[in-house]
User: Fold these one by one.
Assistant:
Number 1:
Amino acid sequence: MQFVAFERAKQGTGASRRLRNSGKAPGIVYGGTAEAQLIEIDHNALWHALQKEVFHSSVLEMEVNGQTSKVVLRDVQYHPFKRQVLHVDFQRVDDKTRVHLKVPLHFEGMAESQAVKVENCTVTPLIHELDVICMPANLPEFIAVDLSGLNSKSALGLQSIKLPHGVKAVVRGANKNPALVSIKLPEVAPDAAAAAAPAPAAPAKKGKK
């Protein structure tokens, strides 16, 4: 995905405020062998780009002063209540250096699974994105997770999915195989449970002496 930025000469709170008032968003790009560079981006174009998942999880091509460099999005600061980007950070990347980025998980086949279609379970994703390390050329836009084989007794953890070639998951904490989804059986209403329970046996009648 490509976007255009412009070199920004002035910095500081006042300069950034004037920049936002003119319909631009201030930012910075850093990393690599070059020095950090102050940039500005058309706010509307940036806002629409930020609504796309690929803008957050891909190597981007940024053009500044006619020169194109590869970058990844590192941070976005939003206004507390306005639809406004206050500041955006990018990091330069190259083909020989691994990148550490969050990649979204796409859960597929849930509706066709036995857990949902037959057992009427509620399946809730617990993890929506995954920290990964890989070379830029191997960075996936997303990782697909097939849920079509789920049933009520399934235990789907991170180690159950096959990651793309060259991609390694970064897991923090003691649990190296965190659950990806929660599977909850349907609740049974008390009246229905009572109706389903077997009726108590009638007491045997005593015979006449």
Number 2:
Amino acid sequence: MSSVWKYALKRKNPITKESDGVCNKCGQKDETVEVVKKPKTMLDYLERKHLKEIVIDLATDGITIRAITRNKHIRDSVQRDGFKLPANESDVMRLIHEDYEDKKNKMASEIQKKT
């Protein structure tokens, strides 16, 4: 954290929606202080995956269905991404089969277009 925030708070202006630096002592806004936004990381530019994509990636990497459903670290990681991983192995398999069927149908339709 920058040392400037010991002396000023960052507040959002409700009208302009811009962030302002406000002095902790007197409460005045200093027009010369430029509030610097946190730089974005690569993750900010990537689209968030769907649960099905996460499960497919894990299975493609050779992680067993049992490990996907029972491993605490995998479950915690998926939950941090905002998803609820099914606890039942058959529900995880259903996600994998749905993805397989989607890709199979897409491939068949592309082949039909070319013939």
Number 3:
Amino acid sequence: MSATPPPSSTPSFPTSLGTSDLTSMSLMGHDVTEELMGNVSFGELAYWLITLERPTKQQSRLFEAVLLGLADHGFTPTAIATRVTFLSAPDSIQGALAAGLLGGGSRFLGVTEDTGRFLGDVLAGLDRLPEDEAGWDEVALGAVRAQREKGAFVPGLGHPVHKDGDPRTPRLVQIAHEEGLYGAHLALFEAIGRTHEQVLGKRLPLNGAGVSGAALADLGIPQELLRGTVLLARCAGLLGHIAEEIRSPGVAAEIYRTVDRNAVYVDPAAQA
């Protein structure tokens, strides 16, 4: 006699994000077509999806300002990777976008995460937050000295182009002040900008990627999602590079031809 099969059960997969049925779609418990479309900006939605908290107008303004400042910065390696990948495989726009996004690392784009984590670690080690600029400067000096003793870079310092000052940095700080969102991460970051020369012996600009990490951290974006937020912004810029290649092809092909036609063979023994 065969055993009685166990009663069937339907698996459950909990989510606080998107669900749908035959006639409707919802995001975070709100009807997509009736409540969200036409009423919520994409930046506002992105913040909402990341934090599960609908941003205030003030939070939206700072968050979207960060996204705008990170969307594109010219012919960076990520943009070049996207363009030449599209040149090689124009039938795979997803591959071209992915190629650029995969280049988000410690030198480009990833600096936002590195800075946010660095600032967060320093703040986590404080018994209490400083009450004035002098107090923040003291904390910043200690943090920079500790990095130098370890032989490590201070993330968020320096820029290959904006050597006299990244224009995004004061603007994001200004917006944070205007919207009442200037917090501990930005305060520490600015203090590092004021004091690092005393330790490093040279003055470096506070870059836009770094200030973005500080601003996003003050907005409550988790450290683990800082780089993902940057990639969200950069995806728009990379799509723009692909669109430009479609409208006016040539840059990617010229990059390829320049490198290929000027490649010079070197005997490996000569490089030993």
Number 4:
Amino acid sequence: MKALFIGGTGTISSAISKLVVEKGWELYLLNRGNNVSKVPEGARVLTADINDEHLVSELIKDMKFDVVADFIAFKPSQIQRDIRLFSGKTRQFICISSASAYQKPLSYYKITESTPLSNPYWQYSREKIACEERLMEEYRTNNFPVTIIRPSHTYGDSSLPLAIHGKNGPWQVIDRIIKGKPVIIQGDGTSLWTVTHNSDFAKAFFGIMGNHAAIGEAIHITSDESITWNNIYDCIGEALHIEVKKVHIATDFLVKCQADFEGGLIGDKANSVVFDNSKIKRLVPGFVATVRFDQGVKHSIKYILSHTELQIADEEFDIFCDRIIEAEQKALKYFKNI
């Protein structure tokens, strides 16, 4: 079996790439070659920018695939490009969408694949919805063999599931915990969130590859573990052997102070999410997520602490946290003195 991954070295796709090679597939990764350390032994790299359609077309002109998966398509124009490039060249085209596309706010707490797609708070999610709609139109009109996969919050060795962080990744939050500084959690920290280890995601994804029953379907892949944000941060603290000092700040206030938080918070992580995974378990019998978060996060913390290149300081975010926490403390002091 032969697969082409567009991307293939990110948090989600690197775990899948590794598993696909282990399972004996012939795997090609089409990317710009920036993360060669994450290319599994045995995979072949086609070095190109997917946006250079002419070059990519030349690279694959004599190739056909059982599966093509695009991990880095975010806009309908990119999907239209993929349709042009891969029509007639693959038995299955897998598009990575996002569970953030589901209705916000939810009308029913448990999310199934039939939950409406609507997110007025996040442009990223609305564009993912438009990508899905274009692909399903192509499936219905021209039998384009699409499968849509919707991940939720998936993490791995070099990443952590955080709701509030800066532009440089999780390190500044870890650094604050290590230094005994408080960290911000939206709301009261009791909303539920679902986290999935990338190795678990990879098992389900591999079961979808070449699966004819998945053609024309949209499927989310998550674990069955829904835990509170307070618990998530406590698990991170336990992995560091440090008690986390949590400061709870109203989501609306955070968004008013930092407008670009709106999509990721009100449009996603401030909501409680519980996923019904019946569909993926039907399509991939025997699939079950086995990495509990309190176990997986220990591997992530150990990996980040041992890789200095991931320890990227973010002074701007650090100052933001200090100022928000200081503002809350001043407000509390004011009302206590009335």
